[in-house]
User: What shape does this take?
Amino acid sequence: MSHRMSVQATLSALQTRILVDGGDPLETLRIRDLMGFVDGQTTNPSLIANNPEIRNRPASGQGLTAREIRDAYKQIVQLISPLVGVAGVSIEVFADLDTTAERMLEQARDMYGWIPNAHIKFPCTVEGIKAAHLAVSEQMKVNLTLCFSQEQAAAVYAATLGTAVPVYISPFVGRLDDIGCNGVDLLVNIQRMFLAGDGHVQVLAASIRTVEHLLYCLSAQVDLVTVPAKILEQWAGKGFPLPGPDFSFPRSGSTIPYQEIDLGRPFASFDVSHELTTKGMQRFVADYNATISSAA
Ligand code: E4P
Assistant: This one.
Protein backbone atom coordinates (compact mmCIF):
# COMPACT_ATOMS: atom_id res chain seq x y z
CA MET A 1 0.00 0.00 0.00
CA SER A 2 1.36 3.47 -0.89
CA HIS A 3 2.11 5.96 1.91
CA ARG A 4 -0.79 8.13 0.72
CA MET A 5 -3.23 5.22 0.82
CA SER A 6 -2.07 4.15 4.25
CA VAL A 7 -2.52 7.71 5.61
CA GLN A 8 -6.03 7.81 4.13
CA ALA A 9 -6.87 4.42 5.62
CA THR A 10 -5.66 5.57 9.06
CA LEU A 11 -7.66 8.80 8.93
CA SER A 12 -10.86 7.19 7.72
CA ALA A 13 -10.63 4.60 10.51
CA LEU A 14 -10.55 7.25 13.25
CA GLN A 15 -13.40 7.23 15.75
CA THR A 16 -14.12 10.89 15.01
CA ARG A 17 -15.82 11.72 11.72
CA ILE A 18 -14.20 14.67 9.92
CA LEU A 19 -16.37 17.26 8.17
CA VAL A 20 -15.48 20.30 6.09
CA ASP A 21 -16.78 23.59 7.48
CA GLY A 22 -17.43 25.73 4.42
CA GLY A 23 -19.69 26.81 1.61
CA ASP A 24 -17.76 26.09 -1.56
CA PRO A 25 -17.99 22.72 -3.34
CA LEU A 26 -14.57 23.23 -4.97
CA GLU A 27 -13.03 23.49 -1.52
CA THR A 28 -14.74 20.25 -0.46
CA LEU A 29 -13.41 18.54 -3.56
CA ARG A 30 -9.90 19.79 -2.80
CA ILE A 31 -10.07 18.37 0.74
CA ARG A 32 -11.46 15.09 -0.52
CA ASP A 33 -8.47 14.81 -2.86
CA LEU A 34 -6.14 15.64 0.02
CA MET A 35 -7.56 13.26 2.65
CA GLY A 36 -9.07 10.67 0.31
CA PHE A 37 -12.50 11.18 1.88
CA VAL A 38 -14.73 13.76 3.55
CA ASP A 39 -17.23 12.39 6.07
CA GLY A 40 -19.58 15.36 5.86
CA GLN A 41 -19.98 19.10 5.51
CA THR A 42 -21.39 21.92 7.58
CA THR A 43 -22.57 25.20 6.11
CA ASN A 44 -24.01 28.32 7.71
CA PRO A 45 -25.37 31.65 6.40
CA SER A 46 -21.95 33.36 6.75
CA LEU A 47 -20.16 30.58 4.89
CA ILE A 48 -22.75 30.63 2.10
CA ALA A 49 -22.49 34.43 1.88
CA ASN A 50 -18.76 33.87 1.44
CA ASN A 51 -19.17 31.45 -1.47
CA PRO A 52 -17.19 33.03 -4.35
CA GLU A 53 -20.18 33.25 -6.70
CA ILE A 54 -22.51 34.75 -4.10
CA ARG A 55 -19.84 37.12 -2.78
CA ASN A 56 -19.16 38.57 -6.21
CA ARG A 57 -22.78 39.37 -7.01
CA PRO A 58 -23.33 42.21 -4.48
CA ALA A 59 -19.89 43.59 -5.38
CA SER A 60 -21.18 44.02 -8.91
CA GLY A 61 -24.01 46.11 -7.50
CA GLN A 62 -26.70 43.45 -7.78
CA GLY A 63 -27.83 42.01 -4.47
CA LEU A 64 -29.68 38.71 -4.63
CA THR A 65 -33.34 38.34 -3.83
CA ALA A 66 -34.31 36.03 -0.97
CA ARG A 67 -35.49 33.51 -3.56
CA GLU A 68 -32.19 33.70 -5.44
CA ILE A 69 -30.23 33.12 -2.23
CA ARG A 70 -32.37 30.10 -1.42
CA ASP A 71 -31.82 28.73 -4.93
CA ALA A 72 -28.07 29.41 -4.78
CA TYR A 73 -27.82 27.71 -1.34
CA LYS A 74 -29.73 24.73 -2.74
CA GLN A 75 -27.41 24.50 -5.73
CA ILE A 76 -24.31 24.69 -3.50
CA VAL A 77 -25.45 21.86 -1.20
CA GLN A 78 -26.54 19.78 -4.19
CA LEU A 79 -22.98 19.97 -5.52
CA ILE A 80 -21.51 19.12 -2.10
CA SER A 81 -23.95 16.32 -1.27
CA PRO A 82 -22.40 13.54 -3.42
CA LEU A 83 -18.87 14.43 -2.28
CA VAL A 84 -19.39 13.51 1.37
CA GLY A 85 -19.94 10.39 3.46
CA VAL A 86 -22.05 9.29 6.38
CA ALA A 87 -22.21 12.60 8.23
CA GLY A 88 -24.17 14.30 5.42
CA VAL A 89 -24.49 18.02 4.74
CA SER A 90 -25.76 20.39 7.42
CA ILE A 91 -27.96 23.16 6.01
CA GLU A 92 -28.89 26.05 8.30
CA VAL A 93 -32.28 27.74 8.46
CA PHE A 94 -32.24 31.53 8.18
CA ALA A 95 -33.42 32.76 11.56
CA ASP A 96 -33.26 36.05 13.40
CA LEU A 97 -34.18 36.59 17.03
CA ASP A 98 -37.88 36.87 16.14
CA THR A 99 -38.17 33.83 13.89
CA THR A 100 -40.70 31.37 15.27
CA ALA A 101 -40.29 27.59 15.47
CA GLU A 102 -43.07 27.20 12.90
CA ARG A 103 -41.27 29.45 10.41
CA MET A 104 -38.00 27.56 10.95
CA LEU A 105 -39.83 24.28 10.43
CA GLU A 106 -41.30 25.50 7.12
CA GLN A 107 -37.78 26.25 5.88
CA ALA A 108 -36.52 22.93 7.23
CA ARG A 109 -39.16 20.97 5.30
CA ASP A 110 -38.09 22.71 2.09
CA MET A 111 -34.34 22.31 2.73
CA TYR A 112 -34.64 18.68 3.78
CA GLY A 113 -35.88 17.84 0.28
CA TRP A 114 -32.91 19.46 -1.45
CA ILE A 115 -30.55 16.49 -0.99
CA PRO A 116 -30.85 12.92 0.32
CA ASN A 117 -28.27 13.40 3.10
CA ALA A 118 -29.37 16.68 4.72
CA HIS A 119 -29.15 17.59 8.39
CA ILE A 120 -31.08 20.72 9.25
CA LYS A 121 -29.35 23.22 11.52
CA PHE A 122 -31.45 25.06 14.06
CA PRO A 123 -30.06 27.51 16.64
CA CYS A 124 -29.90 26.53 20.32
CA THR A 125 -32.66 28.97 21.26
CA VAL A 126 -36.11 28.33 22.71
CA GLU A 127 -37.65 28.52 19.22
CA GLY A 128 -34.82 26.61 17.52
CA ILE A 129 -35.00 23.72 19.99
CA LYS A 130 -38.79 23.65 19.68
CA ALA A 131 -38.39 23.48 15.88
CA ALA A 132 -35.91 20.60 16.25
CA HIS A 133 -38.36 18.80 18.54
CA LEU A 134 -41.01 19.05 15.80
CA ALA A 135 -38.56 18.23 13.00
CA VAL A 136 -37.37 14.94 14.53
CA SER A 137 -41.00 13.89 14.94
CA GLU A 138 -41.11 14.21 11.13
CA GLN A 139 -37.97 12.02 10.90
CA MET A 140 -35.66 14.88 9.90
CA LYS A 141 -32.00 14.66 10.85
CA VAL A 142 -31.03 17.77 12.79
CA ASN A 143 -27.96 19.66 13.96
CA LEU A 144 -28.39 22.14 16.84
CA THR A 145 -25.93 24.93 16.29
CA LEU A 146 -24.55 27.89 18.24
CA CYS A 147 -24.22 25.78 21.38
CA PHE A 148 -22.26 27.46 24.16
CA SER A 149 -23.53 25.77 27.32
CA GLN A 150 -24.15 22.37 28.82
CA GLU A 151 -27.72 23.41 29.58
CA GLN A 152 -28.39 24.03 25.87
CA ALA A 153 -27.03 20.55 25.11
CA ALA A 154 -29.25 19.04 27.82
CA ALA A 155 -32.30 20.79 26.35
CA VAL A 156 -31.44 19.40 22.90
CA TYR A 157 -31.09 15.93 24.39
CA ALA A 158 -34.49 16.17 26.10
CA ALA A 159 -36.22 17.74 23.08
CA THR A 160 -35.13 14.96 20.73
CA LEU A 161 -35.49 12.00 23.07
CA GLY A 162 -37.02 8.93 21.45
CA THR A 163 -35.97 9.82 17.91
CA ALA A 164 -34.46 7.17 15.68
CA VAL A 165 -32.74 9.74 13.41
CA PRO A 166 -29.27 11.11 14.19
CA VAL A 167 -29.15 14.34 16.19
CA TYR A 168 -26.01 16.48 16.30
CA ILE A 169 -25.18 19.17 18.83
CA SER A 170 -22.53 21.69 17.74
CA PRO A 171 -20.56 23.32 20.58
CA PHE A 172 -18.57 26.30 19.26
CA VAL A 173 -15.03 25.97 20.59
CA GLY A 174 -13.31 28.98 19.00
CA ARG A 175 -16.00 31.51 19.90
CA LEU A 176 -15.71 30.45 23.58
CA ASP A 177 -11.94 30.93 23.30
CA ASP A 178 -12.67 34.41 21.94
CA ILE A 179 -14.31 35.40 25.24
CA GLY A 180 -11.45 34.07 27.37
CA CYS A 181 -12.70 30.53 28.08
CA ASN A 182 -10.95 27.26 27.33
CA GLY A 183 -13.54 26.33 24.69
CA VAL A 184 -12.68 22.63 24.39
CA ASP A 185 -13.83 22.14 28.01
CA LEU A 186 -17.43 22.40 26.83
CA LEU A 187 -16.91 19.40 24.52
CA VAL A 188 -15.80 17.11 27.32
CA ASN A 189 -18.39 18.47 29.73
CA ILE A 190 -21.14 17.60 27.24
CA GLN A 191 -19.61 14.19 26.52
CA ARG A 192 -19.50 13.49 30.26
CA MET A 193 -23.10 14.62 30.77
CA PHE A 194 -24.25 12.43 27.88
CA LEU A 195 -22.71 9.34 29.53
CA ALA A 196 -25.89 9.26 31.60
CA GLY A 197 -28.01 9.33 28.43
CA ASP A 198 -28.97 6.90 25.68
CA GLY A 199 -26.43 8.08 23.10
CA HIS A 200 -28.95 9.53 20.64
CA VAL A 201 -27.19 12.94 20.46
CA GLN A 202 -23.74 13.09 18.88
CA VAL A 203 -21.24 15.82 19.68
CA LEU A 204 -20.06 17.73 16.61
CA ALA A 205 -17.20 20.07 17.55
CA ALA A 206 -17.49 23.35 15.62
CA SER A 207 -15.74 26.71 15.40
CA ILE A 208 -12.39 24.96 15.06
CA ARG A 209 -9.64 27.51 14.54
CA THR A 210 -6.36 25.62 14.93
CA VAL A 211 -4.74 22.26 14.23
CA GLU A 212 -4.43 21.88 18.04
CA HIS A 213 -8.23 22.19 18.37
CA LEU A 214 -8.59 19.42 15.79
CA LEU A 215 -6.03 17.18 17.53
CA TYR A 216 -7.79 17.76 20.85
CA CYS A 217 -11.08 16.59 19.29
CA LEU A 218 -9.39 13.47 17.94
CA SER A 219 -7.78 12.71 21.30
CA ALA A 220 -11.09 13.24 23.13
CA GLN A 221 -12.79 11.06 20.49
CA VAL A 222 -15.65 13.47 19.94
CA ASP A 223 -18.17 11.95 17.54
CA LEU A 224 -17.62 14.50 14.79
CA VAL A 225 -15.53 17.58 14.12
CA THR A 226 -16.11 20.19 11.43
CA VAL A 227 -12.99 21.95 10.25
CA PRO A 228 -12.31 24.81 7.80
CA ALA A 229 -10.38 23.71 4.70
CA LYS A 230 -7.52 26.03 5.68
CA ILE A 231 -6.95 24.13 8.94
CA LEU A 232 -7.19 20.74 7.24
CA GLU A 233 -4.60 21.94 4.73
CA GLN A 234 -2.31 23.02 7.58
CA TRP A 235 -2.76 19.58 9.16
CA ALA A 236 -1.93 17.92 5.82
CA GLY A 237 1.15 20.16 5.52
CA LYS A 238 2.43 18.70 8.81
CA GLY A 239 1.82 15.15 7.52
CA PHE A 240 -1.53 14.55 9.30
CA PRO A 241 -0.05 14.01 12.80
CA LEU A 242 -2.35 12.21 15.24
CA PRO A 243 -2.46 12.82 18.99
CA GLY A 244 -0.51 10.14 20.83
CA PRO A 245 -0.82 9.21 24.51
CA ASP A 246 1.54 12.09 25.36
CA PHE A 247 -0.62 14.68 23.55
CA SER A 248 -1.08 17.80 25.59
CA PHE A 249 -3.38 20.60 24.54
CA PRO A 250 -2.09 24.18 24.96
CA ARG A 251 -4.83 25.33 27.34
CA SER A 252 -5.67 29.01 27.49
CA GLY A 253 -8.48 30.93 29.09
CA SER A 254 -10.53 30.00 32.08
CA THR A 255 -11.78 26.49 32.75
CA ILE A 256 -15.45 25.90 31.97
CA PRO A 257 -16.72 24.05 35.05
CA TYR A 258 -18.77 20.87 34.73
CA GLN A 259 -22.41 21.19 35.84
CA GLU A 260 -24.52 18.37 37.24
CA ILE A 261 -27.65 18.44 35.08
CA ASP A 262 -30.56 16.01 35.08
CA LEU A 263 -31.21 14.97 31.47
CA GLY A 264 -34.66 13.72 32.43
CA ARG A 265 -36.22 17.18 32.76
CA PRO A 266 -38.75 18.50 30.20
CA PHE A 267 -36.85 20.32 27.46
CA ALA A 268 -38.67 23.62 27.94
CA SER A 269 -37.51 23.77 31.58
CA PHE A 270 -33.84 24.40 30.69
CA ASP A 271 -32.37 27.90 30.53
CA VAL A 272 -30.98 27.97 26.99
CA SER A 273 -30.12 31.65 26.85
CA HIS A 274 -26.51 32.54 26.03
CA GLU A 275 -25.13 35.87 24.83
CA LEU A 276 -22.95 34.16 22.21
CA THR A 277 -25.96 32.36 20.73
CA THR A 278 -27.69 35.74 20.39
CA LYS A 279 -24.59 37.37 18.90
CA GLY A 280 -24.07 34.41 16.58
CA MET A 281 -27.59 34.75 15.18
CA GLN A 282 -27.09 38.48 14.72
CA ARG A 283 -23.86 37.85 12.84
CA PHE A 284 -25.51 35.28 10.54
CA VAL A 285 -28.36 37.71 9.83
CA ALA A 286 -25.89 40.52 9.03
CA ASP A 287 -23.93 38.30 6.62
CA TYR A 288 -27.14 37.09 5.01
CA ASN A 289 -28.43 40.65 4.65
CA ALA A 290 -25.17 41.76 3.07
CA THR A 291 -25.88 39.43 0.14
CA ILE A 292 -29.49 40.41 -0.29
CA SER A 293 -30.82 43.13 -2.56
CA SER A 294 -32.41 46.07 -0.78
CA ALA A 295 -35.27 45.66 -3.25
CA ALA A 296 -35.83 42.00 -2.30
C1 E4P B 1 -20.30 25.14 11.87
O1 E4P B 1 -21.28 24.43 11.99
C2 E4P B 1 -20.21 26.48 12.47
O2 E4P B 1 -21.21 27.31 11.93
C3 E4P B 1 -18.84 27.05 12.31
O3 E4P B 1 -17.90 26.09 12.74
C4 E4P B 1 -18.62 28.37 13.03
O4 E4P B 1 -17.26 28.72 13.00
P1 E4P B 1 -16.70 30.17 13.39
O5 E4P B 1 -16.95 30.39 14.85
O6 E4P B 1 -15.24 30.14 13.09
O7 E4P B 1 -17.48 31.16 12.57
The mean pLDDT is 95. The radius of gyration is 18 Å.
